[in-house]
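User
Take a look at the entry that follows and flag anything odd:
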Amino acid sequence: MLGEPEEQPLLAPVTPTFSFAAVHEFTQRPPRLDLPGDADEATAVIRRTATIRRGTRMIKLISGRQLGSYLHGRRPSGFCYRAYDLAHLRTGRDLALLTGDGGDGTPAEVVFGLRWRAVDPTDYHIPFSLAVAGLAAYPGLADIRPHDRLGPPVLGTGFAPSQEHVVPEFVTADLADLPLTANASLVAFTPDGQEITLYTYLPEQRAWTKMFGPQWRYLLQRLPDLPPDQEYLPVTAGEHGSTLVGAYRGQSYEAIADPPHEYRVNARARAARYAVETLARRTHYAIWRGVPVTVVRADGDWLRLRLCRPDRDSSPTHGAQCLERGIYEVWANASHVSDLRPVDFAYELDAHASDPTA
């Protein structure tokens, strides 16, 4: 059995003249877009040492309101973190700032999270405000007005705003959805620091299955539209949502990823879960009012669109609604959308991919 990938810790050149306090100050100082300085370059160098590998455990902190949407089919998108970087933050109060939806009445001491494994590092970007060494930049996020955003501000340094901690953050590439991986889970962080697994995702069944006992029902009782006693919650597959596609013997199939080493055809029967020979993430892109968007879902002649690069004009000019930190969406008639197309992002499969039928 191959071991899990060893995560690369964040590295910073701490010296007697450059303390941790100085590093923290750098991470909390928005870069100067007009005249980048040595501090901006140093921050970028430090930030790039925190990397994602195939199989890296990822986590997105969510509110109770968001928990219900994931149980009904929402996929990972937007701001997220390596679980490795949040291992020292265990209580809901420690993690509450990272939920990114501005609060919804859920008790602050309880925070929920979506856990999954990264299929490939190309699915993630660092939310820099500056274009550093050819990496994708998101300058507009840091420039959005407070009344047009939810959650804490985006600093543009690649780090989460925090008075105490140095937490590197990521965004999904182009802020697009990512397909859920096998054994993804929805968890809760309690006031005493416990992590409770609430649901686990079953990809072949496209459903969440309940994992918690009756002593934890109180975590969900105050949340709307969530039956705490329901054991099995099927998810409706969207027509335009991001999916994994793989090839087996020249035929294309919907695929399932179980990183870091197992990628297979999506099939109910175990005997048909062949290891795919190629793998790609398929995401639908389009142009709407001159800006690039991804298509989240369709409803008749209407499309739910998400902006790839939100900026301060996203709400007033494009009419996009901020759903959570960095995520801006809008409904548009399909006749007003141009260049609608699926884009496949191919992954390189390593030689250690296992055959699940073996």
